[in-house]
Amino acid sequence: MARGNRSVSSSSSKWRYCNPAYYLKRPKRLALLFIVFVSVSFVVWDRQTLVREHQVEISELQKEVSDLQNLVEELNKVHGGTVAKIDTKGKTNKSTKEVSDDPIDIQRRDKVKEAMLHAWSSYEKYAWGQDELQPQTKSGVNSFGGLGATLIDSLDTLYIMGLDEQFQKARDWVANSLDFNKDYDASVFETTIRVVGGLLSTYDLSGDKIFLDKARDIADRLLPAWNTPTGIPYNVINLSQGRAHNPGWTGGESILADSGTEQLEFIALSQRTGDPKYQQKVENVITFLNKTFPDDGLLPIYINPHSGTTGYSPITFGAMGDSFYEYLLKVWVQGNKTSAVKLYRDMWEKSMKGLVSLIRKSTPSSFTYICEKSGGSLTDKMDELACFAPGMLALGSSGYGPDDSQKFMSLAEELAWTCYNFYQSTPTKLAGENYFFHSGQDMSVGTSWNILRPETVESLFYLWRLTGNKTYQDWGWNIFQAFEKNSRIESGYVGLKDVNSGVKDNMMQSFFLAETLKYLYLLFSPSSIIPLDEWVFNTEAHPLRIVTRDEGGVVKNLNEKKQKPFPRIGGRKEGRTD
Questions:
Q1: Separation in Å, CA 551 to CA 114, 144, 264, 272, 481
Q2: Catalytic annotation on 190?
């Protein structure tokens, strides 16, 4: 008979299953009942255990949430309320900027901060108020006419790192001792990027008007350099007498990078003072160059300030060419990428077509590098100075459509790998000044000194910020450790005369504090510290606030609004090897 058809004959018979005697007469049924009982007991026990375990987990998670809320509150005190708030109902309420930090980043950042403190303390002890420190002889030297170059270059680094006592002492020196009325022939380029840029950046960060006043003073002394028939500036000017000229070694020509790397600073100065004359001078240069700008966007490094002709001279993304191309992109960023600054972006994109035409790969390892060009021929040489290019390409890639954006980001990453290997390929793990590429031999050091340059670390910073790939942080850490091993001495940091032998020089370049250590510090800092959608770095790593440019280029006096202090965490350069 089928089970489905089985029925109980009487109402009393259903209670027999509760009688133990029934099961004693039927051992198989007893065994089955025992198995069912044990199974049910295990299920009940397991569910109770799971409930207890989940209660423990919930309790632990609630504690972690509480701890995270406390951490967020602490971070918000430091970062000015920019950290995402945690909603315990299951949502994360994102603020304008998210902060991500981890113990390794904190540890590395603290090491870089300690390095800055060592460099600064050495300068303070042996070269206070002078341009640069000579660590081995424990003396100062006025490489830039006695303008306190290292002090001014370091101001924003001290501020960003939260070294308040050191910053305040430097601020007092600027207010009471800094004097630009010197009978000295100054480089317009170096004075602009280091002094004007350093003072404006510190004003933007701190809101202290003394820095703006000093920036205006020195800029006024530089302005006569632009009084040429073409508007292309002379590259040298006497700070007290206003006489401008070009160096004798250029044959009277102006240098491309020196003439096209003042736009960020002088535009910013016009915006913060409401006086358009600074912006007008530097933008006239770009307007003039754009009239005959070539399709490949590549200009020789020498330009005649009287006729505007370029003549026959090398084309390079290294020394004397580099930051001209950098500023075409960064003025577009500085103006918040509006139509008012589209000309700069258009010119930059032309130049990037030219850059691509200079790209070659080494054998056998396929290192991507940027050639130099003279006339119609290419030279397989790349300066370490050109290692700013990966960061520039990464920063500019987002302005392209999807395909070109990926192409230029990939190129940036390939070039960064080459630049990192400039360091890794030497016994000291520090890069030489330039490299040559030979068929079948990859790269070899040309000029073998290292003067604490920042360009590779700068590009690693941009690539980490824009890709989130922590590999770039690891590469930067390796470079920092090489500086610590080879360049740190008891009285500061020095360059190397030879990256192969490790023989030291006697100069702590001001850009080591302004750029190299700042970019390393930011490489290990949350992206809310100097966010790239709010700040643009000049070529000396001085961050300037992004200000939206309106059509017509009307200059507004931003100083009419109270400057908001910046929240903190707790051309390149003419290097000297003497």
A1: 45, 38, 18, 18, 47
A2: yes
> Rounded distance, CA 180 to CA 195, Å?
10
Q: Inform me whether the pLDDT recorded for 478 exceeds 50.
A: yes
Residue among 307, 232, 303 nearest 262 (CA): 232
SS3 for 277-320, per residue?
HHHHHHHHHHHHHHHCCCCCCCCCCEECCCCCCCCCCCECCCCC
Q: Which of 101, 132, 190, 262 is catalytic?
A: 190
> Is the model's pLDDT at 328 over the cut of 80?
yes
Provide the pLDDT confidence category of residue 557 given band limits of 50, 70 and 90. low
Give me the CATH code for the 105-545 domain, please. Answer: 1.50.10.10
Task: Tell me if residue 217 is catalytic.
Answer: no
**Predicted TM-score (pTM) of this structure:** 0.82
| pLDDT confidence of residue 101 | 78
Of 562, 561, 514, the closest CA to residue 541 belongs to 514
Give 312's pLDDT tier (boundaries 50, 70, 90): confident
Residues 187, 573: contact at Cβ < 8 Å?
no
Residue the block writes with tokens 């300068």: 123
Instruction: Identify the bridge partners of residue 236 per DSSP, sorted by sequence position.
Output: 187, 245
Cis peptide before 364 (omega within 30 of 0): yes
Q: 132 with 510: CB under 8 angstroms?
A: yes
Identify the pLDDT of residue 565.
59
The torsion defined by the Cα of 327, 328, 334 and 338, in degrees rounded to 10, comes to: 180
DSSP letters of 484-530? HHHTEETTEE--BS-TTT--B-S-B-HHIIIIIHHHHHHHTS-TTSS
Least confident span in 27-36, 347-356, 494-503:
27-36
Strand 185-187: give its sheet, edge to edge. Answer: 185-187, 236-238, 244-245
Give, in degrees to the nearest 5, the angle at Cα 377 between 458 and 247.
60
User: Where along the chain do its domains lie?
Assistant: 105-545
Task: Average the pLDDT over 27-45 and give the result.
Answer: 50
Question: If 0-12 CB within 10 Å is exposed, 13-18 middle and 19+ buried, where does residue 564 land?
Answer: exposed
Q: Is 539 annotated as a binding residue?
A: yes
Catalytic, out of 156, 258, 322, 383 = 322
Q: Which of 283, 455, 515, 540 is catalytic?
A: 455
Please indicate whether residue 114 is annotated as part of the active site: no
> Binning pLDDT at 50, 70 and 90, where does residue 563 land?
low
CB atoms within 10 A of CB 402: 7
Share of the chain above pLDDT 70, in %: 78
State residue 31's pLDDT score: 54
In the structure, what pLDDT confidence band is assigned to residue 574 with cuts at 50, 70 and 90? very low
Residue 265 falls in the annotated catalytic set: no
Whole-angstrom distance, CA of residue 264 vs CA of residue 193:
9
